C-alpha cells in the first residue's frame, strides 16, 4: 500500500510541477497581452483623436492662400504669415508639439512648407525642410483618408505620433498634407503604470497559486492518511474474518469424515430418527459451505462466513436473506464491512445473553429503487426505551466493559456511515427481540 502511495505521490508531484509551469506561462502571457493591449489602446486613442483634429484643420485651412504661397514661398508673404498664425493657434489650442503643412516632392520626400511655430522658436523650421514622413506613411492621404504613424523617438523633438489629413483644392487636387505631431510622453507613463500593475497582478496570482498548491498538498496528505486508515481498518477486519473462514473450512474438512462415520453407524443401527437429528445439527455447517453460492460481494461473503461460524460456535441459529445477483456496488466495501460487522457482533453478543435460550439472528439485505435496506434482528434481552435513543451516542453501551476496554463506539461508527449516504438508522426492541434497520441512499446511476 505504501509503495503504491509513493508511486502515486511521485506522479502527482510531476503533474503539479507541470501545472505550475503552465500556470506561470499563462500568467506571463497574460501580463504581456495585457500590457501590449493597454499600450495599443492608448496609442490608437491618441491617434484617432489627432486624426480627427487634423481633418478639422484641413477643412479650415485657406487652400487658395496656401496655393498662392506655393507660387512664391517666402516667410514675409501675407499668406505665409496668416497660415503660420492659424496653425500656431491650433497648436496651442490642442497642446501639440507641431502643427504644419507638408508637400511631397518629385523624389517622394516630405518637406515642411509652413510650421505653426512663432518666429524665433528654437524648433522653428525653414521653408522646404525635410520631414520624417515617408511616401508609404502618407499614402492614405492620396485617397482622401487620414493617417497616423507609429511612435517616433526623435532625439531633437522627443517622443511623438504624427497624424495627417489631406488638403485638396477646389478641383480635387492634393496640394498638401496637414500634419500634427502629438507628444506621447504620457504614453510612456501609462506603459510604466501598466507594467507595474501587470507585475503586481503577476505576484498576486503567484501567491494565490502557491496557496492553492500548499492547500492541495495538505488536503491530499490528510486524505491519504484518512484513506490509509480506513483501508487499514477494513483490511484488518477482512483478514480477521478471512482467517476465521479458513479455520472454519479446515474444521469442516477435518470433521467431514467423522460426520459420515457417525451417520453411517446410526443408519446401520437403524436409528433413523437419531440420524435425522444429527443431520439437522449439521445444517449450520452446510450453511457455511453453501454461502459462497448465495453472496456475490467478496467482502460481504468473507464477513458472513466469519459471522456464521461465530454464531455456530455459540449455538446461535443465523438466518440470512441476500439476493444472489446483488453485489452492493453502490456502497464502499469498507463501509459495508463496518456496518454489518458491528451490527452482527452486537447481535451475536445479545443472542448469547438471551435468557430464554432461543438464540437466533435474522439478516436481510436488499435493494429497493436507489436505496439499500439492511435489517439485523436478534433475540435477547429487551432494551429499555430510554436506552434505545442513546445507542448511537459515542461511548454509550448496554454491555459491561472489560477493564481497559473501549466499548460503545460500534453503533456511532455505523451512524456516521449512514449519514455519509444520507440514510436512516432505526432501532426497535420489544418482547425479547431487537431489530436494527438501515437505509442507505446510493447513486441513481448505480441503482438503475
Automatic annotation (TrEMBL):
SMART domains, sorted: HATPase_c
Family matches, as Pfam families: HATPase_c (PF02518), SPOB_a (PF14689)
Keywords, in A-Z order: ATP-binding, Kinase, Membrane, Nucleotide-binding, Phosphoprotein, Transferase, Transmembrane, Transmembrane helix, Two-component regulatory system
Q: Please verify whether the record's keywords include Transmembrane helix.
A: yes
Transmembrane region positions?
Answer: 12-35, 199-219
GO terms of molecular function: ATP binding; phosphorelay sensor kinase activity
Q: Which residues form the Histidine kinase domain?
A: 237-444
Xref: InterPro entries: HATPase_C_sf, HATPase_dom, His_kinase_dom, NatK-like_C, SPOB_a
Gene3D superfamilies under this entry?
Answer: 1.10.287.130, Histidine kinase-like ATPase, C-terminal domain
Q: Does the keyword Oxidoreductase apply?
A: no
Top-rank taxon: Bacteria
Q: Which PANTHER family match?
A: SENSOR HISTIDINE KINASE DCUS, TWO-COMPONENT HISTIDINE KINASE
Q: What is this protein called?
A: Sensor_kinase_SpoOB-type, alpha-helical domain
Q: Which organism is it from?
A: Brevibacillus centrosporus
Amino acid at each position: 500500500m505504501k509503495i503504491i502511495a509513493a508511486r502515486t505521490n511521485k506522479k502527482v508531484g510531476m503533474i503539479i510541477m507541470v501545472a505550475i509551469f503552465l500556470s506561470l506561462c499563462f500568467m506571463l502571457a497574460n501580463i504581456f497581452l495585457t500590457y501590449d493591449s493597454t499600450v495599443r489602446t492608448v496609442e490608437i486613442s491618441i491617434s484617432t483623436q489627432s486624426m480627427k483634429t487634423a481633418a478639422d484643420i484641413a477643412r479650415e485651412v485657406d487652400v487658395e492662400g496656401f496655393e498662392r504661397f506655393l507660387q512664391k514661398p517666402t516667410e514675409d508673404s501675407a499668406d505665409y504669415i496668416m497660415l503660420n498664425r492659424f496653425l500656431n493657434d491650433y497648436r496651442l489650442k490642442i497642446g501639440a508639439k507641431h502643427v504644419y503643412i507638408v508637400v511631397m516632392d518629385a523624389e517622394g520626400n516630405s518637406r515642411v512648407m509652413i510650421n505653426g511655430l512663432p518666429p524665433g522658436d528654437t524648433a522653428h523650421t525653414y521653408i522646404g525642410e525635410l520631414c520624417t514622413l515617408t511616401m508609404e506613411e502618407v499614402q492614405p492621404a492620396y485617397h482622401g483618408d487620414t493617417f497616423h504613424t507609429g511612435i517616433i523617438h526623435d532625439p531633437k523633438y522627443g517622443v511623438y505620433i504624427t497624424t495627417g489629413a489631406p488638403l485638396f483644392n477646389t478641383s480635387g487636387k492634393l496640394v498638401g498634407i496637414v500634419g500634427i505631431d502629438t507628444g506621447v510622453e504620457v504614453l510612456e507613463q501609462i506603459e510604466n503604470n501598466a507594467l507595474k500593475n501587470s507585475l503586481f497582478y503577476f505576484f498576486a496570482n503567484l501567491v494565490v497559486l502557491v496557496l492553492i498548491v500548499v492547500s492541495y498538498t495538505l488536503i491530499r496528505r490528510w486524505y491519504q492518511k484518512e484513506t490509509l486508515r480506513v483501508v487499514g481498518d477494513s483490511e484488518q477486519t477482512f483478514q480477521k474474518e478471512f482467517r476465521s473462514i479458513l479455520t472454519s473450512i479446515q474444521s469442516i474438512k477435518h470433521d467431514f469424515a467423522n460426520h459420515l462415520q457417525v451417520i453411517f453407524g446410526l443408519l446401520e443401527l437403524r436409528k433413523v430418527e437419531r440420524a435425522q437429528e444429527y443431520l439437522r445439527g449439521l445444517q449450520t455447517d452446510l450453511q457455511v459451505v453453501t454461502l459462497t453460492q448465495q453472496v456475490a460481494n467478496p467482502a460481504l461473503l468473507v464477513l458472513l462466513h466469519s459471522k456464521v461460524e461465530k454464531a455456530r460456535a455459540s449455538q446461535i441459529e443465523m438466518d440470512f436473506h441476500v439476493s444472489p445477483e446483488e453485489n452492493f456496488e453502490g456502497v464502499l466495501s469498507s463501509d459495508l464491512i463496518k456496518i454489518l460487522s458491528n451490527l452482527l457482533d452486537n447481535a451475536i453478543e445479545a443472542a448469547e445473553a438471551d435468557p430464554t435460550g432461543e438464540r437466533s439472528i435474522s439478516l436481510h439485505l436488499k435493494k429497493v429503487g436507489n436505496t439499500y435496506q439492511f435489517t439485523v434482528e436478534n433475540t435477547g434481552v429487551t432494551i429499555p426505551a430510554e436506552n434505545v435513543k442513546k445507542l448511537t451516542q459515542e461511548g454509550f453501551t448496554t454491555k459491561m466493559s472489560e477493564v481497559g476496554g473501549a466499548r460503545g463506539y460500534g453503533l456511532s461508527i455505523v451512524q456516521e456511515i449512514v449519514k455519509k449516504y444520507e440514510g436512516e438508522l432505526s432501532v426497535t426492541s420489544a418482547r425479547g427481540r431487537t431489530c436494527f434497520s438501515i437505509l442507505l441512499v446510493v447513486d441513481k446511476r448505480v441503482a438503475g
